[in-house]
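tool=predict chain=A
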Amino acid sequence: MASSNRKKAIDAQSIISKYMEYVLENDGYPVSVYKFCKEIKISEEDFYRFFGSIENLTAGVWNAFYKTTVDVISKNSEYPRFSSRDKVLTFFYTFFELLTLNRSYVLFVLKPQNVPFKNLEQLKDLRNHIKDFAGELIKEDNDTKLYNITKNPVSVYTEGAWMQFLFILKFWVDDSSPSFEKTDVAIEKSVNTIFDLLDNTPLNNVLDFGKFLWKEKFMWN
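tool=predict ok
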């Protein structure tokens, strides 16, 4: 019976939590699945039920951030009635609030010299999630438009949503303002600018967003 209870206690989220603690407490990544499992007192069999490798587990943390964000916003009964603009704002605000709760871990794994595999491979699955999220919103908006010429190309704007996320992520990493309030401003201005572009009324907000970036000296730092 004890073994059965132990099995039930082990799930993907518990392994992710232990992994994040391990990385921060050891100031580095596990050198092998074997040593990590030994450290957190689970079997390799338990580990491989959920993750194929340490790299896969690292990507899994970002997937968990995404899933948690979606779970949180879906509990808001008003969310389905939000405009696409407000849905994106809600998503980004919630996602970056979650990142802030885990800032020490996120900053560590995003340091180029610490990333254990080339580039940002750990964000590959998250990229697909965000593009899918944005794609559904674009499709919903396109369905309300009468003429094909006014519809927005899904592939272009889903890739744009990913680039926008990377921009906000970089801004958040560098943000030292109280409560990361400048990141909130960056989210608001960048999302409004994108949707103004979609609505073909961009000039004022594009200029406003540009001024904000220049003021923060973000683009070229």
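The chain has a mean pLDDT of 83. The radius of gyration is 20 Å.
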